[in-house]
Amino acid sequence: MTEKPKTFDVRVLLFREGSEWTALALEMNVRGYGSEPDAAVRDLCEMLAAQVSFAVQMGHPESVWQRAEEKYWQMFEDARRDRFVAEVSGSELPAEPIANIVALPLLALKHRDEWTAARA
């Protein structure tokens, strides 16, 4: 029987900075960039997987937990509220910012009572 891969849900705010999209992981204050929202999220997930892997290997997984500035949390909450209102009222969704929750894939293996993580 195959064990389901471990994931961790990360709050991600997507917004434009010039012509490029930025994906910001709010709990970890890590950014990914791309020409489209999906590309920025992929870049962000690669950055997060690398950071988490390194932190776990060094024995300090808590070190990746660095809260983004409050203004980004507020943008996320506003975007979630706006999406909810648009969906229940049948109005058009705002183009940005985009509030998303992304499942970060983690491959966790236990060795000698220690956890290590790697990109799934």
Describe, in short, the structure shown.
This protein has 120 residues and is an alpha+beta fold. It has 2 helices and 5 strands.
Note down, in words, how this protein is organized.
The protein is α+β, with helices and mostly antiparallel strands. The chain has one domain. It is built from 2 helices and 5 strands; from the N terminus they run E-E-E-H-H-E-E. Strand 2 and strand 3 form a beta hairpin.
Q: Notable features of this structure?
A:
single chain; 120 residues; alpha+beta; five-stranded antiparallel beta sheet; 2 helices; 5 strands; 35% strand; disordered C terminus
Q: How far do the termini sit from each other?
A: 18 Å
Number of DSSP helical runs: 2
List the uncertain runs.
108-120
Instruction: List the domain count as a whole number.
Output: 1
Overall helicity? 25-40%
Beta-strand residue percentage: 35-45%
- What characteristic shape results from the CA principal axes? globular
In N-to-C order, the SSE pattern is EEEHHEE
Strand order of the largest sheet: 3-2-1-4-5
Compute the average pLDDT.
Answer: 85
- Report the structural category: alpha+beta
